[in-house]
Amino acid sequence: MEQDGDVGMEFGRVRRALVWTGAAALVAGTTGVLGATGAGATATASKPAVAEAAAKDVTATTAKLTAKVNPNGAKTSISVACTGGSYAWSANGLAAGGTPSTVTASLTSLTPETGYSCTLTATNSAGSTESSAIGFTTPESSEPGPEVTAPTVGDTTATDVTDTTATLSAPVNPGGGATTLGVTCTGGTYKWTATGPASGDTPALASADLTELEPGTEYTCSLKATNSAGTTQSSAPAVFTTTGAGEPTPTPTVTPTPTPDPTPAPDAGAPTVGPTAAAGVTSDSATLTGSVTPNGIATAATATCTGGAWTAGGAFAGSGTAPVTVSVPLTGLSAGTKYVCAIQATNTAGTTTSAGPVSFVTNGAPKPPTTSTAISIKAKTFNAKKGKSKTYAVATFTDKADLPASSYKVTINWGDGTSSTGKVVRTGKGTYKVTGKHKYTKAGKKTTKVTVSKSGSAKVTSKGRANTA
């Protein structure tokens, strides 16, 4: 009887070792194996068989995976692996046996509106067998998510200020949404890195480290926070000055006045000149006055005259945009002579001559024409080509008075029955050349005649020759 009792007790222990249950939770993105300890598989065990894997009872955050599993003679554990989103699972195992049974794995913490692909794996002492892929998609969650509002940021403060670094901090409430931090500063160069609350709706201290600041420089800095509902700047910035001497302030270079601005402003232009008037007229001098608008660029003014010899001074009109009255002195005028003069203004955008010139006669009697040889002229011989319009140098002359080229009038008789006005170019002190443009229609030798005159002097003429081929 004692022997029979011992056998019964041993049989009970073996039977209890064959019956077990187990469950475990798996963190998102990992897999696990559930099983039970106890007596090993029988010597005739083989790998489990898995069939008819499917998903059922799928909600926004939960699902159940089922399959028919045959332990094939050894106790068998079930594990789950999924891709697609977050999840956790629990599953029961099977005792040793040879009959297929339905196993169920419960999935929780799924992500709403997400496609999943899962497998069930059955494992015993002889090996593991994986099910076919089980695909399903979770529906939209029927529970409303937390409301997200724009973050709030308190006053920014600066601490641990050195020559080139500082730390900013401020209380930040993320407003219920994932929140990132930023930094904005004025005053000098800087770089930053920031840390702070990622989400939630409770204020927490956020901070940012500033680097590569400029020594001896005042900065104004604020923390700002951004989530899906918007961006909020610190209610009050931090104002601080980095230590150190900083860069020395360069001594400004003194620029003499007047100095025209070489680069016109975008809205600048050539000057505007109003009508010219004359005052203080004597036998040899006068003063021109007029209104000049610089139009945003440094502008100088002088004069242009016809009628006789003259020399003009200058005036500076500034670089503003309002009209300025300028006065330009004239000297070296001829007595008893009628002059027509205008103020001429110049800046880097161009030159403008008054559209309203002034006419006046100097005091005194004009000097009678003389036959003096003050002007000495010599006409030239030049070669010309028939049918071609060309500019020729036709004469040179000298005048000890050394007047501007505009003081002389020149007439060129081309020897073919036509005449035209020549151009005078000053080539040196008291020396000049005369040029003119002409087209000969016939070949042959032509006798030219060049006549030069100036106010108060007799005309001087010289003959030359044109060889036309």
TrEMBL record:
Q: Which keywords accompany this UniProt record?
A: Carbohydrate metabolism, Glycosidase, Hydrolase, Polysaccharide degradation
- Limits of the Fibronectin type-III domain: 49-141, 152-245
Region: Disordered, residue numbers:
129-152, 241-281, 444-469
Q: Which PROSITE patterns match?
A: FN3
List, alphabetically, the Gene3D superfamilies matched: Immunoglobulins (2.60.40.10)
Instruction: Work out whether the entry's keyword set contains S-adenosyl-L-methionine.
Output: no
Q: Which stretches are transmembrane?
A: none
The record's SMART domains line, in alphabetical order, gives: FN3 (SM00060)
Q: Which InterPro entries match?
A: FN3_dom, FN3_sf, Ig-like_fold
| Record field: compositional bias (Low complexity) | 266-281, 449-469
Give a single Pfam family match. Answer: fn3
Q: Output compositional bias ranges, type Pro residues.
A: 249-265
Composition skew (Polar residues), residue ranges: 129-141
The protein's name is Fibronectin type-III domain-containing protein
| Species | Sporichthya brevicatena
